[in-house]
Amino acid sequence: MQEISNSELAVLNVLWHHSPLNASEIVNALAAQQMHEKTVKTLLNRLVKKQAIGFEKQGRAYLYQPLINQNEYQIKQSKTFIERVFGGNLSPLIAGFAKHNELNEKDIAELKSVIEQWEKEQK
Amino acid sequence: MQEISNSELAVLNVLWHHSPLNASEIVNALAAQQMHEKTVKTLLNRLVKKQAIGFEKQGRAYLYQPLINQNEYQIKQSKTFIERVFGGNLSPLIAGFAKHNELNEKDIAELKSVIEQWEKEQK
DNA sequence: ATTTAAAAATTACAAATGTAATCTTATGTT
DNA sequence: AACATAAGATTACATTTGTAATTTTTAAAT
Known about the structure:
The structure is a homodimer of 123-residue chains.
Chain A: H1 6-17, E1 21-22, H2 23-31, H3 37-49, E2 53-58, E3 61-66, H4 70-86, H5 91-99, H6 105-122
Antiparallel strand pairs in A: 1-3, 2-3
The first copy, chain A, binds a DNA duplex (30 and 30 nucleotides) through residues 2-3, 5-8, 22-24, 35-39, 41-46, 59-62.
């Protein structure tokens, strides 16, 4: 599948959060990001063309829903990002966040739990 | 400053690894990624225009070096990425990596050290 | 000094992207 | 049934990006 652009992703994020939704509901959800209605419609069309979302007719309107899985998308993008920006090493990202005080209590707790889980699985 | 594109970043990464370098040295470094010489030259020009790199003349050739800091770039991009893809939460990224077995011994060790460091600083 | 070859500068060009406006069509209303 | 209106479809258009080719300049060799 073709790449999903940044602005397309904003639309997709809405549908990952809650779906199905019709176009005007999506427009409303994106009003905060001051994205114009016509722009959202364009992006919906492009996402359909890219087979990232699908729809079914509901009266005059369409009901859209994602066709790709958010978690899969996230992990794939993460790998690509870390490859591109960090040469494939994850930990510099974490270290960078730590250094710039971007980590909070909750992050640390979750990191610990991830580590614990990982170690359990290594048995 | 304008955004740095993916292919531009590949060039910039070479210079972050070692600089200053002249164009043909950079071309050589990128030969592995089968990037055409002319393409590299174009990207060097664009990076100069974007003020991401600078140069000084050395004979007929230019010696290029980065003008922006890699760590700063990395943290900024990381924040943007995590905002865009994970809605701002770091830990799902790590958890995702863990779940897909993308974490190795070394990553875990570094994560632990980051956590330790973080806790020390919270005192 | 001339020629040449290598560097840099300029130009090219299609595809993707951001951002809408306009056109067409189907549906709800009167 | 006619019509207004709202949805979706199509068109628009400048900018960015990937990927080079062509042109111009200039230092190096003879």
